[in-house]
Amino acid sequence: MKININRSENYFNNTHRGAGTLKAATNRVIVVEGKYDRARLSEILDATIIETNGFGIFKDTELAKTLSRLAKERGLIILTDSDTAGLLIRNRIINIVGAENVKNVYIPDIKGKERRKKKPSKEGFLGVEGISAAELQKILDSADVLSAGEPHKYLTKTDMYFYGLSGGTNSENLRKELKKMLGLPTKMSADKLLEMLNILTTKEELEKMIEEITGGVLNV
Length: 220
What we know:
The protein has 220 residues and is an alpha/beta fold. It has helices spanning 35-42, 61-73, 84-97, 133-143, 157-162, 171-182, 190-200, 203-214, and strands spanning 5-7, 12-15, 18-22, 24-25, 29-32, 45-46, 48-51, 76-78, 102-104, 147-148. It has 2 domains: 5-148, Rossmann fold (3-Layer(aba) Sandwich); 157-214, no CATH class.
């Protein structure tokens, strides 16, 4: 199982909000269908973006479990394509996590073909990746799901080292136990775990969990 998570890190950028301003941001987790959708959104947003790998959400139980946890902790923004497949994927996610934890954002039906494709999709509409960054910005603004500035983030790679979650002889085991406590896939990489910790925990909660795992030792 592969969970693709991305966060744009260039907060000061020449975005469609104007040069030198902060990218739009949200503490909610945005769910898209694929990597090209994620790449497009990363042009204008500082946010955690997770891919469903298309219809992978129908079979990937670990991804479903992770989305359920994220939905309860932060809430989701679903932004899938406007075609039938996109609607099926959207409905599947809602059935998994519950409608109360979801903000639905829709792109309009626009006839066309993405540059990387040789021919249009079956229904002939552009997907999220084919919508211009400026148009996506308008869509997200009108949906009122964003805020200006950087979302909550307290943990860095340096902190991971300080807490013994990287660079130590026992780091791998510590990460494994931490993922179990958080209900995350055990195969999740250290970088992805860092992302999830920033979403799911506070500094105090993380320290308490580490002490529980290590028997009271914070820095191992």
